[in-house]
Structures are given as C-alpha cells and as structure tokens.
Amino acid sequence: MSSTHTEPAPAKLNLFLHVTGKRDDGYHLLDSLVCFADCGDVITATARDDAELTLSITGPMAGVLATGNIEDNLILRAARLLRAEANVTQGADLTLEKNLPVASGIGGGSADAAAALRVLCRVWQLDIPTTELEKLALKLGADVPVCLHGKTVLMQGIGEKLIDLPELPNLSLVLVNPGKAVSTPEIFAARDAGFTEENLWDRTARFNSGASLAAALQDCRNDLTLPASGILPEICDVLNALAREDGCLLARMSGSGATCFAIYDTENQAERAAHAIAESQPDWWVQATGIQTTEDRARAQIGAS
Ligand code: C5P
Fold this sequence. Notes:
Bound molecules: cytidine-5'-monophosphate
CATH class of the largest domain: Alpha Beta
Number of domains: 2
EC number: 2.7.1.148
Enzyme class: transferase
Shape: globular
Catalytic activity: 4-CDP-2-C-methyl-D-erythritol + ATP = 4-CDP-2-C-methyl-D-erythritol 2-phosphate + ADP + H(+)
Pfam families: GHMP_kinases_C, GHMP_kinases_N
Distance between the termini: 10 Å
Radius of gyration: 19 Å
Pathway: Isoprenoid biosynthesis; isopentenyl diphosphate biosynthesis via DXP pathway; isopentenyl diphosphate from 1-deoxy-D-xylulose 5-phosphate: step 3/6
CATH architecture of the largest domain: 2-Layer Sandwich
Number of helices: 11
C-alpha cells in the first residue's frame, strides 16, 4: 500500500453567521449555516521512517506562509498533536498546495489543519473514532471540527456543535477577497453590540434551487460584517461589486472576512460576474465555483491516492 496520500481542504462558507453570546473565556457562541465550496487547498503526506515532521508550501498563495515561521503553521501543530495523542513514532513529509487567500474567513488554516488530521490518519493507519478526532480538532481552533466534518451543517457553540442538514442544491457562486488579511480575534473583539437570538432555521428544509435557498437566507445575516467592514472598508466595495452583477441573488461576507461570496441565478452569470470583477479589480482574488455535493466528496476520496 502506498504511504503517500492526498486530501482536499475545501473553502468553508458561512452562508449565515449569527453571534448569539459570549463565553467567560472570551469565545463567542455562534449559530451558522456552513457549507463547503468546490475549490480549496490540497494536502499531501508521505510517511517517514524516522520521527521528523516536515512541511513545504507551494501554490499561488504560498507567499507569506512559505517565508514565515513554518513550525507555527497549523498543519504542523495538527501533526504534532495527533502524533502525541495517538502515540505515533513515525514522522511524515507534508506538502500544502495553498490556493486560498490566508486569514480570509473561508477556513484556510482550519481546513488545512482538518485535512492534515485526515491525511495523517491514513498515512499512519490510525483508526480514531470521529468524536475523538473532533475533540483534537477543537484544540487546534474553533473552526477545525466543522472543516473535519466537511459537510453542510448548522454549527453552534463556538464551533463544536455540528448538526447535519439535508444536502443543499448546487450553487453558482463567486468568491472575492480584496487581497488583505484580517485578524479574526480583532473582528470578534469589535463585535461588542448586543447578541442576536438563535436563528429559527428550519433544520429539515430542502431547497430545490439556489434561488429558493438564497430567498430563505435573506432573513439571516453575518453579524461580523459591520465590525469587519469598520476595520477593512474594502469589504463594502467587494459586496457592492458582487451585488451589482447580473443575476446576483445574495451577496454576503463569510466568517470574519474579508472574503465575500455571492449566489447567482445561473452558472453563466456567476462566470460572467467573476470575469468582470477580476478585470476591473486585478488585485482581488476572484473565484467562480460551486458547492461540494456528496458525489464531489466521494469522487475526491476515490481520486485521492
Ligand atoms: O479558535 P481560533 O484560534 O480559530 O480563534 C481565534 C480567535 O477568534 C479566538 O481567540 C477568539 O478571539 C475568536 N473567536 C471567537 N469566537 C469563536 C471563534 C473565534 O471569539 N467562536
């Protein structure tokens, strides 16, 4: 059996994100509809005979990550934690193909850490129950359990309560980041207004089109948009650029920003919007995509060597 394996680390999207409270330790309680886009980073790992753990970073967004302190990267922290908890003596060579902008509200580092846990379980042939792996994931960050889960869920608590939902229709999406990183703790700290009630999202609702889902999402919000756009006003420019393109059904920020997404009525409209925005704002990261369906996930598993 090959000791090299690959795992996708798809972009996470908060279709809505309501902040419902704050814990004594400063973490915020959330109520958020999370799904995964059909684009993202890719993690590859090869087992080593010795105990060393290495990470190399490639890809269009490798930039600061590749030149920064690699030992602090969440992927290596995930690898060290898993190795200690599972008493593994082997090491691994890991590669991150970084396609998503960093610190951008679409999971990035959390998705990479979750994919690292998954790929290392395969490389080291560990059979750890999902609940145990999710506990490890939470030690790495509040968004890591949902990225490990990798399916459409209602996410509550600080990110540890994951409630499965019916599959969403495929969406014609455009993701846009203005090319500036934002600090998640800073955005949460700026969210000092009153907290909103838990959303009454119908957990059994099935949507037969992107348009019907977008209509239901109109009643929801991302409560971090105001604090984030106060710190980075370009977020408003991104939302306006997405909203003024033909066929836009909904434009919203994901996570703590600065990446925003829009749902378009058709795939053609999404592609045209992505093209127009990329032409007028060459410094922005622009990606037309869809969401991951069960079949996409199955294909990714089969395709992973
Ligand atoms: O858990 P993670 O390290 O990803 O979180 C980074 C920071 O974001 C936390 O230290 C906290 O300030 C803020 N945060 C929060 N509530 C959450 C998630 C993150 O306040 N649910």
